[in-house]
Amino acid sequence: MPGGAVEAYNSQPGKYKFVVKKRKGFVKVALKNGSPLVPVISFGETDLFRQIDNRALRNVQEFLRKYFFLGLPPVVFMGRGFFQYSFGMIPRRKQITTVRKILMGIPVEVTKLENPTNEQIEELHDKFVQALVALFDEYKYKKNSTNSRPVKHLPSSQMKVLGIEFAPLVVPMHRRYETLAVAAWLFLAAFGGLTGLLVCIYLLFTRLWWLVPLYATWTYLDRHVGESGGRSNFWMQNWRWWYHLKNYFPVETHCVPSFSLDPTRNYLFCCFPHGIIPVGPFTALANTWSNFRKSYPEFTVKLAVLHALVLLPIVRELGLAYGTISCSIKSLNYELSRPEGGHIVNLMPGGAVEAYNSQPGKWP
Questions:
Q1: Which of 47, 130, 234, 242 has most Cβ atoms within 10 angstroms of its Cβ?
Q2: How far is CA 54 from CA 4, 59, 76, 358, in A?
Q3: Beta-strand runs (E) in the chain
Q4: Domain containing residue 73
Q5: Dist CA 163 CA 203 (whole Å)
Q6: What is the pLDDT of residues 200-236, one digit of tens each?
Q7: Quick check: is 143 in a domain?
Q8: Antiparallel, parallel or unpaired: β 101-104 and 77-78
Q9: How does it sit in the membrane (predicted)?
Q10: Longest dimension (CA), the chain
Q11: Is the pLDDT of residue 97 over 70?
Q12: What's this model's pTM, rounded to 2 decimal places?
């Protein structure tokens, strides 16, 4: 996710600000491997949460991100709860069902260069930015026009008590499954690493203390797996959990006309915006149940994340099994240089920093 933590801080409903102007490392990787760049825009990503927009808080967040959180954005966000819609940490379902789309632009062709010059990197970067802007300009009005449509599947018999909007008591069971699926996923994504550390610390003071040094040894010996293709698990990727997660919003995948992929080549999908948590790339591209994966079954899809996330105890095993890899240069080069082709890496150039830039109801 090239935009990094900056994109995450700027995430507010209805506003899109992509962090890409100074992010050129992904362009160099694409040139060295001859991998086409595919611009991907996730409309609705910034509508899932709201966050406090305060300059003093922003400075504190940036300090914590740089020195204490290994690049992870310590954002303060608010969504909805399990039984009410007014506050909580679950992504909002409103509007996402009608406007949530992943729009994939026509791949920007790349000529393989072992040692690209700064001028060549700048030239390709400019082409990519132009393609990204053109894609956004073409589809933002189509997306915006859907805001007036009624939200699908939402019952009309909602209750409001003391200003808190509660969910109806009687809803289809599949909606409960979907909400539970997204709540569990959010907990793992946001707090899985910390929970894993706390579990390990707790075990040190029990009769199972010996499991901790064994697991620590395994993690150390296995520390490079995130930079050498990961360790996907087909069984885990087909859990019903991911099906309910996809249907919660739901997520739709739309390609521009003439969009096609060559199974003998490797592609770098550059996804915008990052949002608080990158739901779009996770559910619409990396999810085995997604329409995209069904349309391109011959491709192996990986999701590039911060290197720290493939090192944190316990949660790293789930992430690797799902198909995550490190977003380091070494990892990207490994995946994109595979001679057999048929590999897609989803990267977010704006990264978590992009989340700062989103504000409700505003369009660039």
A1: 47
A2: 20, 9, 11, 13
A3: 37-43, 50-51, 77-78, 101-104, 159-161, 164-166, 252-255, 267-272, 300-305, 324-326, 343-347
A4: 5-347
A5: 43
A6: 999 999 999 999 999 999 999 999 999 999 999 999 9
A7: yes
A8: unpaired
A9: Multi-pass membrane protein
A10: 64
A11: no
A12: 0.83
